Amino acid sequence: MAVRWVRCLAPFQTLSKRDQLLLLQESWKELFLLHLAQWSVPWDLATLLTCQQARDRLPTDLHTAAEIKTIQEIMCRFRQISPDGSECGCMKAIVLFTPETPGLCDVQPVEMLQDQAQCILGDYVRARYPRQPTRFGRLLLLVPSLRAIRPITVELLFFRETVGDIPLTQLLGDMYCMEKCTAP
Hints:
The protein is mainly α. The chain has one domain (15-174): Retinoid X Receptor (Orthogonal Bundle). It has helices at residues 2-7, 10-13, 17-39, 45-49, 52-57, 62-81, 85-96, 107-128, 135-140, 142-147, 151-163, 168-178. The protein starts with a helix and ends in a 6-residue tail after the last helix.
């Protein structure tokens, strides 16, 4: 779903194919978690972890436990804020267009696209939710929390049973190159 969304995002298509792939590979976990928060029914991650198979996939270190707690907190905050589709789209664009991504050929357009996404989100929130002056900041504060989660934790928790030991960045690259935009 995230690959299709990225593939059909017109501003993304203006970037070089190499930069597109790098940005997708760098932001996949944030995009996945945003999609999960947006489209899933409310759930408690602890329920998923009661399954012995899930517990066996995850390391038992404190860092992983903290990340699982962070994912739960993100989902809870997301439900509290209850962002609409436009806000979710802007947040996805903000995490996708990360100018700090290593190896980018052309950083300036990525920086400009991230700035535009932030401005669009800010303008939209102020116009649509004028009685919620902290809403824009609360939405933006979710981004560092999303970035704090290691990709391996998301891979092990949500994808290992399906894809096995195939690196998700490789799989995403293959999917992205094969995916066609089906939007009108």
